[in-house]
Every structure is written in structure tokens, then in C-alpha cells.
Design goal:
Blueprint: H1 5-11, H2 19-41, H3 51-86, H4 93-134, H5 140-165, H6 171-203
Length: 204
Amino acid sequence: MVDTEFVEALASKAPTPGGGGASAYAGALASALASMVGNLTVGKKKYADVEERMRAELVELDDTRAHLLSLIDEDARAFEPLAAAYGMPKDTDAERAAQNAALQKALVGACEVPLEIMACCLQVIESCVFVARHGSVLALSDAGAGAVLAKAALMAASLNVVINIGSMDDVERADVYRNQMEDLLAAGGAMADEVYADVVKRLS
């Protein structure tokens, strides 16, 4: 049942998948946990009052999970021009200028993909808030685990943003990306922490 292909590829010396792909994969796993809670909730008389909203959350989680899985490959594709730019010759002024121009162009995609991963992880955390509060109590711990895992994915993806904005010549663009990253971290981290604390309290 366990598909180890991605994990084995991640463990290899190949440059991709890397941290970005792992973040997207972890976010997808977090989404799956939240979906499990939702699926254990719908159809139960006890939770009839949240049935419609829970089904809507499940649809959103399915879409977000599919997008996160697609971002694994997108992250790898975004890394290709970055790696190519770093490998360009830098022996002359002209070569260095060409190399830096290629690098600056590649850095945009290398920042935007992990930011998209972070945005998806925030959506997953928001769903975890709902399923933890209104989902089946039998799966409460899974809702908490989903929030924690999504927060880890959020933080891991942010590291790809940090490393890439550090090489950007365009200070204004770098600041925009940094602000987006920090906003996503602040919002998602706070929500995930609240879910975790609430779940621990209710389980104790």
C-alpha cells in the first residue's frame, strides 16, 4: 500500500525532488488526514448540522491536495533553469553578466512555486481548524496531526523562498516575496498552533 517511489527519489543524490517537493508532499498528506476526518463525519446523524459544510470542505481539500501533488513536479521544473544558470560559465565579464541575467530570471519561478505551496498549506490548515472543531471526535487526533503536518510543510517551503530571495538583485521583488512568505507563516503558524493546543486539551 505504501508507495515509496517519491521517498526513494527524495533520498537519492538527484537534485530533485528536494525540499520544495517534500513540502508539497507533506502538505498533501496533511490534506489527506483532514479529509479522513471529514469522511468519517459525513453521513452521521450526530453531525447532521455540519453535513453540508463538511462536504464542501472535502471538495476543497480534494482540490488542494491535487494541486499540492502537481506542485511537486512544478517545483522540480522551476529548479531546472536555476541549476542551469548556476552551471553557466563565469570566466569573463560577458559570461558573468549572462549568467546573472539567467539566474535572476530563474529565481522568480524558484520563489513563486514554494509560495504557492505555502498558500495551499494555509488552506489545509484552515480546513483542519474546521474539521477539528466540527468533525468526528473519534478522529480528533488526526485533525490535530493534519494541522501540525501542514504547518511543518508551510515552514519547510518558506526556506526555499528565503534562500532564493537572498540571491535576487531586484530588492523590491525580493521584499514582496518576503512579505508574502512572512504573512503566510504568521497566519498558518498561529492557526495550526491553536488547533494543536485545542486538540491536546480535548484529548487530555
